[in-house]
User: Fold this.
Amino acid sequence: MCDTCGCQLHHHHHADPKIVEVNQSLLAANQKQAESNRHHIEQMGAVAINLISSPGSGKTTLLERTIEILKDTFKIGVIEGDIETERDADRIRAKGVPAVQLTTGGACHLDAPIVHGGLHVLEHLAKGGKYDLIFIENVGNLVCPATFDLGEHQRVILLSVPEGSDKPVKYPATFRSADLMLITKTDLVPYFDFSMDEATKEAGILKPGLEILPLSATTGDGFERWIAYLHGLLKR
Amino acid sequence: MHELSLAQSLIDQLLELAREHQAERINRVLVTLGPFSGIVRDSFEFGFNVLKESHDVTRKAVLELETPDPVYVCLDCEKVAVIPFATPNDQMETRSGYPYPKKCPWCCLTRLSPKGGTELILNQVEME
Assistant:
């Protein structure tokens, strides 16, 4: 009889410890949702891009300029991630495309479950729920967003000239996870101690073969290659 | 601080496993953090130890973390090398230029590209 509760079961309260082999990723729940997001995005007819960078490196400005160039060619939707405010989504809406603002209320990154909610709102905002390109602008942060797959097809990391060319080597996990790296604000190169050579060399060591495009949303320099890259994604 | 979200997903996984195996208590949890996972070991451990207090099942759980040594591929000679991270005891060597900047032990050049090592794995759980 069990001494603790008096039941007749053997080993009811004093069972031997049991060892369970799990071998499962800690990110399994996020990963499962990310796969489902990717499927959802494909059902909407779209390719999704996850934009990651430090705060203030020009993600929203890049999107504004990109939308101006492409909005008559492609159906674009934007999911904006921030800790607070609708400001970024308002800037995108002012360009005439649907935008959903996700506010994390403190969390330093987007994850797949929160983006899932955003996708449903975006789908509701479009006639017929169809898109060609969906941009997901992550919370400005060069550390945490790297760990979370959101269901994107391509991950684009921005590095702006004022931040310094040492960022890839200082934030290796993020740059390693990139499919494309944009060096933004290149019109400011004359005013900052930024070595294009260092930035491209270090990023190339972390991820051999990584495509790197320098551009400026102010002057439009380098935008042809960025736009060509987006066209290339949609042809696949 | 995404360590806290990861610690929370670990707790969720443990509660689910305990339910599945009808266990009342989790004693020991073995987790592998890849050397390039970008997860700060101390923050993750701290998060786990705070969150485990909210559930009777996990309250006594001891977290054991292991981090394999980092592996690099040399982009010059294409050989693979295991180069452990520097520890505070390596100060003398660090000052003399080893192990930072890291060098390929085969060709002595420095273009070392990280290989794998981004895993975050719940390996084993001891429960009763």
In short: Chain B touches chain A at residues 1-2, 5-6, 9-10, 12-13, 17, 21, 23-24, 27, 31, 36-39, 75, 111-114, 118-128 (CB under 8 Å).
